[in-house]
Amino acid sequence: MAEIKFDPTDLVELQLIENAITARHSEIKELEINKPLVEAERELGGAKENFDKASSEYRETDGNRKKLEDQVELQNEKISSNEEKLFSGTITSSKELENYQEENEILKESNSKYEDEALELMELLEGMDKKVQEAKILMGGKESEVIRIKNEMNEKLEVLNNIVEGLNKRREEVLLRIPEDLKKKYNEVKSRKGGIAVSVLKNFFCSVCNMEIPSSEAEKIEDPDEIYKCPLCGRISIVYRKEIDKIEKELES
Ligand SMILES: [Zn+2]
């Protein structure tokens, strides 16, 4: 098949390297899809929403409490000013005195009502504040979870990208050792056979189709340095040798 004598192991090595590259690429793809990250980000979104809701409820209630206190303060000022007038001795009309007294009574009554309402809101606010703090802690936890997953993903991606870079270099080196016609044949079989062009014949079994080579065909397999074709799956077949195990082990790590 080949005009230049070369080591058929190189063809197996090329196949194994390309298998490893494909496997790493799917690992990279899986990492980039990152279901745990998507889930953590979704949970963080929910936690943020809860926190915002609890915070705005707190702010709204606190605003209402403040309004009541402002109102009480305003009415207290009015009461004081009324009292000043009452005790200034400048008012001579008893009707006018009565009006001021009456107004102050109404104001005091209204203030006591407002103060009660403000107190109730204060109690509510305590519970609301607790809810806000809890939501904040939960959100913080989700936030660190997202950051943790992202960091972990980036670290793994860096490692995988380095591995792929190394594999590509090794692939280029192997390609230099393979004759052009064999490379052409390899690519042709690869595109026809789902990406796997090379199989290894061990004890007359094909490593890819897992079938035993019929004895009539097996008889022809004599030279371990020759390149054969699996009569069953049609792939380029190389007779097993120990170096193949070594290459497989290297590519595993
Ligand atoms: Zn086969």
Notes on the protein architecture:
The chain is mainly α and 253 residues long. Helices cover 75% and strands 6% of the residues. The protein has a 4-stranded mixed sheet. A hairpin with a 2-residue loop joins strand 1 and strand 2. Helix 1 runs antiparallel to helix 3, helix 1 packs parallel to helix 6 and helix 2 packs antiparallel against helix 3. The mean pLDDT is 95. The site of zinc ion has 9 residues, from loops. Zinc ion binds next to loops.
What are the salient characteristics of this protein?
single chain; 253 residues; mainly alpha; 4-stranded mixed β-sheet; 4 strands; rod-shaped; binds zinc ion
Distance between the termini: 33 Å
Report Rg: 42 Å
Helix content: over 70%
| H and E order | HHHHEEHEEH
Structural class: mainly alpha
SSE layout and pairing:
Elements (H helix, E strand, L loop, with lengths): L8 H25 L1 H54 L5 H84 L2 H13 L5 E5 L2 E2 L8 H4 L8 E3 L6 E4 L2 H11 L1
Parallel strand pairs: 1-4
Antiparallel strand pairs: 1-2, 3-4
Helix pairs in contact: 1-3, 1-6, 2-3
Bound molecules: zinc ion.
What is shown here, in short?
The protein is mainly alpha-helical and 253 residues long. The protein is built from 6 helices and 4 strands. 75% of the residues lie in helices and 6% in strands.
